[in-house]
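Exercise 7b. Backbone tokens:
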């Protein structure tokens, strides 16, 4: 399928690896010029060089922490005018409800709610002026069904979801769509971190932790960054203009809900 976005320009946050990289790869394959962001410069430059060589698209890099005002300013300046915004940031650390204090919640809100909102406010007005734009926020399956040990993520990402629910309906008439992708467990560093926490807490092997988690996924496996990226690229395409303010689960059926 021709996604109809060749020649567009996209900012993909936290895209040096994991789900963000999957989104950047899929957009590059569709002929989209990229602005790639991550905190670590070395991994970012390696990923950008590979995408330039593989897909022949222009790739601009900006190493910055978008959870900070300084990082946001750097990313906004480097990106210039964009047609597509993919918001993404690593999740807060797991724990229990009594482990977290105010500073922990502020850090989670800065990374997983306030930073995406700041970038939406920075880029969407120009998209509206041009009459076309796409925003995709990578959140989590936990906004549909909370995960107890991810209380910081539950809170911050659900706040972003509420903001998007209202905002998306205010901008859709100008040709701009805002939607959320809700990943379950994918084969990324985040999954390794969560599985390692189970290993430490329960004294089992990493292989046992993964096998146990996979049993709770009807698809019987972890997702891949490639299939996640393909879903992101579709939401960014010309075919997704009537999808507004939605929350698409990519969890292999793990979230046991009807709607």
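Sequence design result:
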């Amino acid at each position: 399928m021709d996604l109809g976005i060749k020649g567009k320009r996209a900012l993909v946050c936290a895209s040096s690896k994991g789900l963000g990289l999957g989104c950047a790869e899929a957009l590059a394959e569709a002929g989209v010029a990229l602005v790639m962001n991550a905190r670590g410069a070395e991994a970012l430059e390696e990923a950008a060089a590979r995408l330039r060589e593989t897909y022949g698209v222009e790739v601009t890099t900006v190493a910055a922490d978008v959870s900070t005002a300084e990082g946001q300013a750097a990313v906004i300046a480097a990106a210039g005018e964009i047609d597509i915004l993919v918001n993404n940031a690593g999740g807060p650390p797991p724990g229990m409800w009594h482990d977290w204090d105010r500073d922990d919640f502020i850090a989670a809100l800065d990374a997983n709610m306030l930073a995406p909102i700041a970038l939406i406010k920075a880029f969407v007005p120009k998209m509206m002026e041009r009459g076309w734009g796409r925003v995709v926020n990578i959140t989590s399956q936990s906004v549909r069904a909370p995960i107890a040990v991810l209380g910081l993520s539950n809170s911050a990402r659900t706040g972003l979801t509420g903001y998007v629910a209202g905002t998306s309906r205010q901008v859709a008439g100008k040709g701009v769509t805002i939607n959320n992708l809700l990943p379950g467990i994918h084969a990324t560093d985040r999954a390794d971190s969560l599985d390692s926490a189970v290993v430490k807490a329960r004294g089992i092997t990493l292989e046992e932790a993964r096998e146990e988690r996979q049993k709770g996924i009807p698809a019987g496996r972890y997702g891949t960054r490639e299939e996640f990226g393909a879903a992101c690229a579709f939401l960014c395409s010309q075919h997704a203009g009537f999808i507004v303010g939605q929350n698409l689960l990519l969890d292999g059926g793990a979230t046991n809900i009807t709607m």
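Instructor comment: The chain has a mean pLDDT of 95. The longest strand covers residues 176-183.
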